[in-house]
Amino acid sequence: MNAETRIKSCLVIGAGMAGLLAARRLQENGVRVTVLDKGRGVGGRMATRRFDEGVCDHGAQFLTVRDKRFGALLDELCAAGVVREWAKSFPDDRGTLLPDGNPRYCGVGGMNAIARHLAAGLTVQCSETVTALNVEDGRWKVTTAGGLSQMAEALVLTPPVPQSLALLDAGNFVLPASIRGELETITYDPCLAVMALLDGPSRIPEPGGVKITQPPIAWIADNRRKGISPAASTITIHTTPDFAREHWETTQEEIARMIFSEAERWLGANVRNWQVHRWRYSQPVVTQAASFRMPCLLPCLLVNSAPPVVFAGDGFGGPRVEGAAVSGWAAAETLLADGRANQ
Ligand SMILES: Cc1cc2nc3c(=O)[nH]c(=O)nc-3n(C[C@H](O)[C@H](O)[C@H](O)COP(=O)(O)OP(=O)(O)OC[C@H]3O[C@@H](n4cnc5c(N)ncnc54)[C@H](O)[C@@H]3O)c2cc1C
């Protein structure tokens, strides 16, 4: 391999599952990588919030495995004490338990512990909101709200696709029309997450999660039963996408009031404190494979511009943490292979 033509530096936008695994793969192959994220910590939608003495997972609730390579990563994370099996199934609100035998895994102490573990050894700069991406002197230039500006030979974009496109627009970078058109077909559902600290145990049964079949609630979990909130009973409630769309502009107080009233049978104790988080892009509804009608495609999209940019994330790999992971790996390997192809 000609070391002169191989990519030597890369900027990765987003420190969620896709961005972290892309960065690790690139770094393992000798590429200098910087990961930038607007969040205060790493993890993206694998999110854990601490408030008062309670802890809540308010984004992804658990991991599932289909892909062999992701399974091997989970084995490693379990052996390192970062991940453990939570349950093999959850009941629905009619009390029906449908065990499918597939384990659901969670982060020990919270889902974002997984991201913190994967970020170790990487250069990750949090609280850096990227505002524009453009090409200067044949290299990608990233500009952040805090005034940071960095350059690299390649770029991996892992935010939800509409956010990635907005960053390229802000830098006046024009994508080929056909690629732009395909990317614009990738769409996401919103979700409102309501978290509450209770003054006693909830009525959510073991193992601590219930699939709700009646809108406006889709899921309710007890984070103490899950094992991540030892000092206090906290619950996480996710709304249906329709409710989130209808109430996107509704005040947090009104959302909390409506959702606690709907969830009354599961509460079992008084709400001492609460928070609401709005996920505008919670999970992709139409992913790249579906929009391209070519499921054999790699779970990422390389734009063979000079310099190259790869789009990745669950919008390409599928609407789960696992989908984001396989997309992150594919993004790194596509860039590494692209460097070799150009030699
Ligand atoms: C409510 C909810 C419940 C879910 N439940 C599950 C579940 O139970 N199981 C499951 O497998 N999956 C679940 N998911 C989906 C799962 O969380 C995602 O598929 C996965 O985490 C996506 O990872 P990602 O790396 O593609 O994107 P993200 O995790 O969203 O990472 C993208 C990162 O880009 C950063 N970013 C965006 N814009 C900028 C910018 N301008 N500058 C800097 N950084 C930026 C963001 O801060 C973010 O950290 C759920 C998601 C939500 C929201």
Order of helices and strands: EHEEEHEEHEEEEEHHEEEHEHHHEHEEHH
The strand line-up of the biggest sheet is 7-2-1-11-18-17
- What is the helix content? 25-40%
Backbone CA Rg = 21 Å
Provide a count of the helices: 12
The distinct ligands, each listed once, are: flavin-adenine dinucleotide
Number of domains: 2
Tell me the overall shape: globular
Main sheet makeup: 6 strands, mixed
The low-confidence runs, each spanning 5 or more residues with pLDDT under 50, are none
Structural class from helices and strands?
A: alpha+beta
Distance between the termini: 8 Å
CATH class of the largest domain: Alpha Beta
How much is the average pLDDT? 93
CATH architecture of the largest domain: Alpha-Beta Complex
- CATH topological fold name of the largest domain: Polyamine Oxidase, Chain A, domain 2
Beta-strand fraction estimate: 25-35%
What this model shows, in words?
The protein has 343 residues and is an alpha+beta fold. The protein folds into 2 domains: 1-38 and 128-184 and 288-343, FAD/NAD(P)-binding domain, CATH 3.50.50; 46-110 and 187-286, Alpha-Beta Complex (Polyamine Oxidase, Chain A, domain 2), CATH 3.90.660. 31% of the residues lie in helices and 29% in strands. It contains 12 helices and 18 strands. The strands form 5 sheets. A 6-stranded mixed beta sheet has the order 7-2-1-11-18-17, covered by helices on one side. Strand 1 (9-13), helix 1 and strand 2 form a beta-alpha-beta unit. Helix 1 packs parallel to helix 12. The longest helix is centred in the last third of the chain and has 21 residues, at 321-341. The chain is globular. It starts with 8 loop residues before the first strand and ends with a helix.
